[in-house]
Write a structure and sequence with these properties.
Radius of gyration: 18 Å
Structural class: mainly alpha
Largest sheet: none
Shape: extended
Number of strands: 0
Strand content: under 5%
Number of helices: 5
Helix content: over 70%
Distance between the termini: 23 Å
Oligomer: single chain
Order of helices and strands: HHHHH
Length: 80
């Protein structure tokens, strides 16, 4: 599947402008510290999704909710 310039323009149109200060700051960090913001963002996304599932499925146990969260966030990388 190829992406043409019109498709790319459409995708980019809704994005915020590049924060070059943030990019330079992260690039200046050593690799072991560079990954921390991404890990925090992932943890936030997973916690937010877990809260949504808790509201949607109030009778599920914590372990079952955690399984649903993991399935949601890993299905892109893993096939069933």
């Amino acid at each position: 599947m190829s992406v043409n310039k019109v498709d790319v323009d459409e995708i980019v149109r809704g994005l915020d402008p590049t924060d070059w200060v943030q990019i330079k700051l992260i690039a200046s960090l050593p690799p072991e510290r560079r990954i921390i913001p991404a890990m925090r963002a992932q943890a936030f996304a997973m916690a937010t999704f877990r809260c949504t599932l808790e509201k949607r499925y109030p009778n599920l146990k914590r372990a079952e909710l955690n399984t649903k969260v993991l399935e949601h966030f890993t299905k892109v990388r893993m096939q069933k």
